[in-house]
Amino acid sequence: MESSELLLHQLFQTVRIISKGLNKNLESHGIYSSEWSIITTLHEKGSMPQGALANYLNIEPPAVSKSLVKLEQKGLIMRIPGDDKREKKVTLTEKAVDQYMIWGEIVGHHRKAILTNLSEDKQKEITMLLRGIFQNAQQYEKV
Q: Quick one: CA torsion of 9, 10, 11, 17, rounded to 10 degrees?
């Protein structure tokens, strides 16, 4: 296997195992890592249209829509009228805001456990390298 293939394979495998572990940790609270990414984005960025949320997370709109339906059924998000009559903004409910700190602690413990052997400098270095790969991927998509 050539080094570029090995690198991307390792990256995919790493993301999958992180997601799997996070799902296991959040399972008793009734949410999944894909839902957590939506919840944390809305918590950090505020209400936003569904399309903007999908773009921000780099997730296909149908996948975001499916997660939003589940989050809505769980009473964790609601859709409110947007600036345009056709647009609905997605926002967190009070229930989600109340639970956010608990979920955040679980995610934080998981994050700390999986990064335990990486110094702050190594984490910054990896982040910079991944940011470069991400930017290259964005440029490739525009072509």
A: 110
pLDDT for res 33? 95
pLDDT above 90 covers a percentage of the chain that reads 89
pLDDT of residue 37: 96
CB within 8 A of 131, min separation 6: which ones?
none
**Amino acid found at 136:** N
CA 99, 101, 104, 110 torsion: positive or negative? negative
For residues 46 and 74, give the distance between their C-alpha atoms in angstroms, rounded to a whole number.
19
Tell me if 49 sits within 8 A of 68, measured CB to CB: no
Element (H, E) at 49: strand 48-49
What is the percent of the chain with per-residue pLDDT over 70, rounded to a whole number? 99
Is the Cβ–Cβ distance between 57 and 37 less than 8 Å?
A: yes
Quick check: 28 and 47 in contact, CB under 8 A? no
pLDDT digits (tens, 9 = 90+) for 112-122: 999 999 999 99
Residue 9 phi/psi, 5° resolution? -60, -45
